[in-house]
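subagent[fold] <- orchestrator: predict structure for attached chain, return tokens only, no commentary.
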Amino acid sequence: VARRSTYSRWDGTQDVPDLDADALLQAMGDELIEHGDPEAALRRMMQHGLDVGGHHLQGIREILEKLRR
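subagent[fold] -> orchestrator:
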């Protein structure tokens, strides 16, 4: 079954968290230290998301789960 998507121009109403670059790099560094492998850390961040400065950046799994609902 093909899925249909609709895309539109950016209109400024999208909710985009105001992320601090230092906090983002710290969270990424924590992932790297935990996994010890840059590739594994990046894969985990992309799949499961990342908590940065009180914001949760969704990972691919969370986005796909929302699309399924």
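orchestrator: received. Logging for downstream: Helices lie at 21-35, 38-48, 60-68. DSSP finds three helices and two strands in the chain.
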